[in-house]
TrEMBL record:
InterPro entries associated with the record: Anti-sigma-28_factor_FlgM_sf, FlgM, FlgM_C
Gene Ontology biological-process entries: bacterial-type flagellum organization; negative regulation of DNA-templated transcription
Keyword Repressor carried by entry: yes
Keyword Transport attached: no
Protein name as it appears in the record: Negative regulator of flagellin synthesis
Family, similarity comment: Belongs to the FlgM family.
Lineage: Bacteria, Bacillati, Bacillota, Clostridia, Halanaerobiales
Organism (species): Halanaerobium kushneri
Domain of life assignment: Bacteria
Keywords: Bacterial flagellum biogenesis, Repressor, Transcription, Transcription regulation
The Anti-sigma-28 factor FlgM C-terminal domain, residue ranges: 31-85
Length: 90
């Protein structure tokens, strides 16, 4: 039974052209990303932290000298307070 005198080949050609146009439209869209001001601040801060040395060499040297000479004393009350302060946060 023929409804209209339309050939299946022409329908397939039309369908393929429509699919091709849709594919081209999808490819034509540009993806974009926007970074918030806060994110930019964080990126800048990280870059600055990377520039800083990991160890404060002069402080480490001074502490090492005090430990080796036997002049380094720990304030036990201050140490206990700091430990308790950190435990309370958790």
């Amino acid at each position: 039974m023929k409804i209209n005198n339309i050939q299946a080949g022409k329908i397939n050609q039309y369908y393929k052209k429509m699919q091709q146009k849709q594919t081209e439209k999808k490819q034509a869209k540009d993806d974009s990303t926007q970074i918030s001001a806060k994110a930019k601040e964080i990126m800048t801060a990280r870059a600055e932290l990377k520039k800083m040395p990991q160890l404060r060499e002069e402080k480490v040297a001074a502490l090492k000298e005090r430990v080796q000479s036997g002049n380094y004393q720990v304030d036990s009350k201050n140490l206990a307070a700091k430990i308790l302060n950190n435990v309370e946060r958790v």
